[in-house]
């Protein structure tokens, strides 16, 4: 089965014929079938395979073993959010709950790593809920690769009680790991925390990671620096966050590998919720020479990301040094900035005044004209939109375009439940779904799931 799963061009056809057979799948076949999809990009054919497999998984009466759970979820790592992927997650969740076989460390790392492209949903939360006792019951120490892979897989999980339970279960496993983390594990672990809201559980993970980072003897690569700091973007100021910053600062200083423009943008962007502190200043001091030494031209997206992370208000000497290092990079930007530039400029002007702040404000104001000219020409690229989406202008109104999904007026918002979009009418925000209609209140995943079930039973749509 596994060899068939990896057979290249004929994979989808082989899978479809296999899934259409009347013979139920066994646990090992489920694990192998999904494992074989690990490099399949999102496509109509892949979704057809997932739809077929979801039914087969539901019909399977054989309990899944630990390795089969790890393999099954690991194979989903390239699957984009879709109805079919959610059907597979919904089918797997009760199978994981029913499994009586413990998962070893590698199974846990593989399972969570496979969730890296799954958008927040009721189905994903069910998987996380099912995985919590498996992590707690695991008696085998987690390896550094397992720690990195497990946290990396959480990168698109929105804050929820299920995500917090996962973090709570992983924190003591990190503490139990007897060695320092290597540079790749540091980058992947912290990068995976990028959507985790401040919580006791998140702080426990940060507290567990800080000494592992501090004790690490391996120099950080440029991409690792960018990924590690980028993952802190939603972490509120805390003793635990400051401990991580304190551990990272000397590693950044010791790194001999240059940071490219993307890594610098990512690194500074991740500092956006850090309050002014000695630890933050140490990180800023470490980053300044990396900015100066960067030989790659900055793009507008890199500058906008960097500026978002520098709005701390307190105009310290270290922050002023970052401003000074960025000015020539901003001057050299050749591609147009997005409409977000005005917001970043306005926020910066609230900081304490200094010659360096005045210089960076002047550099940014010179780019405002370019933004206006570019809007009039009809197109703006917005770096922080989901992959593949760009923003355009038509007769004074902006719309959004994707090569596969076409054009739409609504702002793309991945934090909303599947199928919902956000709109504005006369200054007031409302939410719309093609099937369920419009409502003023922001939809949440639980209510959408329940109302969709009730509506489908009565053959009608619903609206608040």
Task: Characterise the protein shown here.
This protein is α+β, with helices and mostly antiparallel strands and 464 residues long. It has 21 helices and 7 strands. The chain has helices at residues 2-5, 11-20, 27-35, 44-59, 66-74, 83-98, 105-113, 122-137, 144-152, 161-176, 183-191, 200-214, 222-230, 239-254, 261-269, 278-293, 300-308, 317-331, 340-348, 355-377, 445-458; strands at residues 379-380, 390-394, 397-402, 406-408, 420-425, 428-433, 437-439. The strands form 2 sheets. It has a 4-stranded antiparallel β-sheet, covered by helices on one side. The protein has a 3-stranded antiparallel β-sheet with strand order 5-6-7, with no helix packed on it. Strand 5 and strand 6 (428-433) form a beta hairpin. The protein is globular and about 75 Å long. The model is unreliable at 1-9, 375-382 and 449-464 (pLDDT under 50).
Secondary structure category: alpha+beta
* Unreliable runs: 1-9, 375-382, 449-464
Q: How much of the sequence is in beta strands?
A: 5-15%
Q: What would the principal axes of the Cα set say about the shape? A: globular
Q: Measure the end-to-end span.
A: 48 Å
Q: How helical, in percent, are the residues? A: 55-70%
Order of helices and strands: HHHHHHHHHHHHHHHHHHHHEEEEEEEH
Number of strands: 7
- Nearest-integer average pLDDT: 85
Main sheet: strands, sense, barrel:
4 strands, antiparallel
Secondary structure tally, helices:
21
Oligomeric state of the chains in view? single chain
